[in-house]
Amino acid sequence: MSFRIASVVAVIALAGCGNIAAVKSFSTKFESPADGETANLRVITNGMVRGVPESDCINWYIPGAGVIAAQDGFAHRNDEDMRMPDSKWTTAISKSNFYNTEVRVTAGKPLTLDFIGNGRVTAYAREQCFLARSFTPEPGHNYEVVRIQDGSTCRFRLVDFVNSTEETAVKAEAAGFCKKSHSFM
Q: Given Cys at both, which of 49, 86, 124, 177 links 182, Cβ 3.0 to 4.6 Å?
């Protein structure tokens, strides 16, 4: 009988570790670097965008990892304004319809951005976007990521831009979890 109780306690304790990490990944704000070379990043989304600095994979225990933009009820850095210039997208579309912010990120090292869409329910299924991509920002550059779930479509746009007429698409690599155990975070 005591073996059974010990087994149940062990299972609950192990499950709790994953739940605590899951809470951490939604309740911790992304932290901008205090020093070193940086780039500027504007995030526009209708879901949640979380960031993992200095990593090309997802690990919510890396210092600085956390939520960049999301709906209220989660940690976020919405509406921070670094006076970045308008891009082609922000010139054409009102940012007020989305969660958006501007943050500094470490340059010269990978940055992983993880998107979770708000999802939608149809008569047959629940559809939700999950998309993680990694790229390496260059010092002093302005970047804009637009991550939107539009029905069953996951839209992703990442550009390096100077102003509303000069921009270059940025190649981002698919990113996964650093370790399988990180998927519980």
A: 177
Position 165 pLDDT exceeds 80: yes
Q: How many Cβ atoms from other residues are within 10 Å of residue 181's Cβ?
A: 12
Determine contact, residues 159/168, Cβ cutoff 8 Å.
yes
Give the whole-angstrom CA distance, residue 41 versus residue 111.
Answer: 11
Model confidence, pTM:
0.81
Around Cβ 163, how many Cβ atoms within 10 Å?
13
Give residue-wise pLDDT tens across range 49-91: 999 999 999 999 999 999 999 988 888 889 899 999 988 888 8
Beta bridge partners of 43: 101, 145
